[in-house]
Amino acid sequence: MRDVREYHALSRHSFQAYARGPGTIDWDRQPDPFRRFDGAQCLPLPLWQGRADAASAWFADIDASAALAPVPANVEGTGVALDTDSLGAWLEHSLALSAWKQHGGARWSVRCNPSSGNLHPTEAYLVLCGVDGLRDGLYHYRADLHALELRCAYTAVSSDEPLVLVGLSSLLWREAWKYGERAYRYCQLDIGHAVAALSYAALLNHWSLAPLAVADDTLASLLGTDRVADFIPGEEEWADCLLQLRPAADTAPLAAIPATLAAAADAGQWYGRAEVIDRRHFYEWPVLDAVARSAARPASAAGELAPPPVEERAAPLPALRGESLSALVRRRRSAQAFDSAAEMPREHFLRLLDHLLPRPGLAPWNALPAVTGSIHCVLFVHRVAGLAPGLYALPRSATGEVLMREELRAEFAWSAVADAPPQLPLYQLVGARAERAAARLSCQQAIAADGVFSLAMLAEFGAAIEDRPWRYRELFWEAGALGQALYIEAENAGLCGTGIGCFFDEPVHELLGVRGDALQSLYHFTVGRPLRDSRIVSLPPYSGRRS
């Protein structure tokens, strides 16, 4: 495999054949979804008891305050100081378990952040300096225990202010076990979901996340993922991204600190060795390591993080006063089936779409790198009150609209939806019942037809990765973040979402008239009223702990 373009073509599904995957799967022997470092000190984080201010904060209020009036941290009565309590609350609302599920003899966990196949390849590491109650160093987050494992203790790091960086990596084998060559795509979508989940959760403490452009080699050194002796062969992790947690109003750049911390990691005291997650690796997928190398950010691109200007938009429409953000993120689930007779109010639909548009400083878009606004939506509208069924386009930028008009079928109508908010570029392409097409294109999955709507995410592809192959994974991050926004907005509207990674790539492009690679479909999603399986019992995520 020569480059990311070749991988993308190799990992496509078609009507004739799926991308290569394992011939057999032993469902009783899935890879362990929880990474553990044997020999590393484990420090339980406090469980969130519900601060009065955050517990009563409606998602509508937090969403608006984040967009219009960021609150600086460490201000009496408004901000939240960095300590184990606030860090614990942040992680509990982003990467922690949200429940255990049980059906007969089967028992499995679900988390605040979704994952393809519930396999969870994403691992999270925290670089902490000057945080009350914790030694300066690198920590690994244990979602199964809601705890931090001390991986490296720093001996000489100076920081005038508390410093919190979060690094995310991908354990490719977890997804490859089920999905084979397409697994890299799903790992990067999961990174996007995790980034967005962390960004939303930061709002509870009046924090925000800012992306850092760090060379992959530097990031691997900082996170310890390059310590070959600490990992089982075939179960290594690939470092993906680094973000800084900071007060919501802080926009100052952070440049040299990651390199300084990488040096501190080299000189620090390391602890622990990764435990085995799967004792039987029946298949090997060398193409996954190859694309990970091809998509790595080189040292020459370190510090290169200059997002293109985002066009000015009106403030987002006020969110529905549904529930608190805390309740929404912990209630989020991926629906397995939908009520095919359910209908969505037009007002709710337009409000949801408006909240998918990227706006400066608004979570989760402020946590993404330079490709923000490079993913656009083609919607299969099935049952939205007052809106004719059919195929619709939602370009998320002005340049994206130009590109879509150039690349999609010439016969599409591009009729602006009447009475849509003026800042919402929503167009009807063709009026028709689209349930059968949506299901067929999404690998024959009924959820794409039974929801009130489904959509395909089209990325500005060819030009974006031409000279910057690391942008390939960043496009998936944006798609994953868009999926997380859909989950949260659907929950707040009393519905449910489901991400769809399995779709037939070229047939989607053929339906839309896309011929080259200027646009490529990266992710599908569907929203509807879920049908609950009463046989499945839901249990608390950390029932063995009191605090």
Structure description:
The chain is an alpha+beta fold and 547 residues long. It folds into two domains: 24-275, 3-Layer(aba) Sandwich (NADH Oxidase), CATH 3.40.109.10; 325-528, NADH Oxidase (3-Layer(aba) Sandwich), CATH 3.40.109. The protein is 29% helix and 20% strand. The strands form four sheets. Strands 2, 5, 6, 7, 8, 9, 10 and 11 form an eight-stranded antiparallel beta sheet that branches. Strands 15-16-14-13-17-19-18 form a seven-stranded antiparallel beta sheet, sandwiched between helices. The protein has a three-stranded antiparallel beta sheet with strand order 4-3-20, with no helix packed on it. It is globular and about 65 Å long. The N and C termini lie far apart (50 Å).
Query: Stretches where pLDDT falls below 50 for ≥5 residues?
Result: 64-78
Query: Which class of secondary structure composition applies to the elements?
Result: alpha+beta
Q: Into how many domains do the coordinates divide?
A: 2
Give the termini separation. 50 Å
Largest sheet, in brief, is: 8 strands, antiparallel
CATH class identity of the largest domain? Alpha Beta
The CATH architecture of the largest domain can be named as 3-Layer(aba) Sandwich
What fraction strand? 15-25%
Estimate the mean pLDDT confidence: 90
**Fraction of residues in helix:** 25-40%
Q: Work out the helix count.
A: 17
**What's the CATH superfamily of the largest domain, by name?**
NADH Oxidase
Count all strands and give the number: 20
InterPro entries: Nitroreductase, Nitroreductase-like
GO molecular function, one term: oxidoreductase activity
Protein name: SagB/ThcOx family dehydrogenase
Pfam families: Nitroreductase
